TrEMBL record:
This is Putative hydrophobic protein (TIGR00271 family). The chain crosses the membrane at residues 36-55, 61-82, 94-114, 163-185, 191-213, 233-256. NCBIfam families: TIGR00341 family protein. It comes from the Bacteria. Keywords: Membrane, Transmembrane, Transmembrane helix. Pfam families: DUF389. The keyword Transmembrane helix applies. Signal peptide: none annotated.
Length: 335
């Protein structure tokens, strides 16, 4: 181990390879207890996460993050890659996929309690997890690195609850199930991409940290071979997750700029028409921008002027103005 590695992972605090596998391999040691504990905590965290999502409760969702056990088999994938144990990789992937399926099914079943499907567009727990960006990957990589260090060093176990909160594995799966149960497939796909982003980030960061910690030096394969294998897999995973996130980030920025342009053009148009107004939300349905506007009597100015000011938008964009009269009602007092 280099001096830098010994500083980051002191030998006195470093887990042995058996200790690491005991932490991350659900088939190592008391396998039955590990597996039943994993499944119990997975189901409970899934129910808590979905309930928190449906209630739009951040505190409840955080509770689900803390008890969710999915980080164990995900880092087990990284440990299997670095140590050259394909069986560990396969078993860990199986547990991750099983967890994915269980939580998504819970989300689908509990989504029937949504009285109004339109809540999907206003629930912050859902909208915040359906459009992952590159910044989410950066945060996940940093969190995954912290988690891998905590699994490598005996003195850092106290940070694991914070890692569980930051990486957020079960809530995105709950959102996948809820959105799928309501037929919102685009939102479900976005939440699934966020989950995969977090998974790949954990595997990438875990592979790097575990290699740095010297776990690649096992008696069954040469250190050089293991490093090459680990680095190759890490590189492929990084490309697989970075490309869709980069594309989504560009699309998100592009739509944000168009939204700003529409808002400014609409405001300038109504100012010129000398109309008292309030511009509400601007939401997108595929290629259509829906602009909510309220005026004193529900009237609008010359719409051709607004149309001419929106010519810089792409031809495939449609802008729809939804106008309502601004009304007020005295509900108490006044006597």
């Amino acid at each position: 181990m280099s001096k830098l590695t010994r500083t980051l992972i002191p030998p006195s605090q470093r887990y042995s390879i058996d200790g690491l596998l005991d932490l991350l391999d659900l088939s190592h040691g008391d396998a039955l207890s590990k597996r039943t504990g994993f499944l119990i905590m997975l189901v409970l965290s899934g129910v808590i996460a979905v309930a928190g999502v449906l209630a739009d409760s951040t505190a409840t969702v955080i509770g689900a993050m803390i008890i969710a056990p999915l980080g164990t088999p995900i880092l087990g994938i990284a440990a299997g890659i670095v140590t050259g144990h394909p069986g560990l990789v396969a078993r860990s992937v199986m547990w991750v996929l099983s967890g994915l399926g269980i939580v998504v099914v819970i989300g689908v079943l509990l989504s029937v309690f949504i009285a109004d499907p339109d809540v999907l567009t206003t629930n912050g727990q859902i909208t915040g997890r359906t459009s992952p960006r590159m910044v989410d990957l950066a945060a996940a990589l940093a969190t995954g690195t912290a988690g891998a260090f905590a699994m490598s060093r005996k003195d850092l176990s106290a940070v694991l609850p914070g890692v569980a909160i930051a990486i957020s594995l079960v809530p995105p799966l709950g959102v996948v199930g809820v959105c799928a149960g309501q037929g919102a497939w685009n939102e479900a796909l976005g939440a699934l991409i966020l989950f995969l982003c977090n998974v790949f980030a954990l595997v990438i960061a875990g592979s790097i940290v575990f290699t740095m910690a010297g776990y690649a030096r096992n008696p069954h394969a040469s250190p050089t071979t293991n490093r090459k294998r680990a680095y190759s897999i890490v590189g492929v995973l990084a490309i697989l997750i970075a490309v869709p996130l980069a594309v989504n980030s560009v699309i998100t920025i592009y739509y944000a700029r168009m939204t700003y342009a529409i808002h400014e053009a609409t405001g300038a148009w109504l100012d010129d028409a000398d109309i008292d107004y309030d511009i509400g939300s601007i939401t997108w349905t595929n290629r259509n921008a829906n602009v909510e506007v309220s005026t004193e009597d529900g009237s609008l100015g010359d719409q051709s002027k607004l149309e001419s000011s929106l010519t810089e938008l792409p031809d495939w964009v449609t802008v729809t103005i939804h106008v309502t009269p601004a009304t007020s009602h005295v509900v108490y007092g006044g006597s």
